[in-house]
Amino acid sequence: MAFNTLILAFVVFLCVRTINKIKQAQEAEKKAEEAAPTPEPPRQEVLLAEIRDLLAAKRESA
Question: Is residue 54's pLDDT more than 80?
Fold first, then answer.
């Protein structure tokens, strides 16, 4: 009886330890994503945004 309890306690301990490691890894990944700077948009998108703004300004003045 006591031996079965020890085995069960050990299995629960291993499960809790594994879950904690997974949580720590997810938190570290989340912190790394938050700390990473946002990438600059591609040159094509910048040019398209400028063209859009110019067309909008031209439409408003006409």
Answer: yes
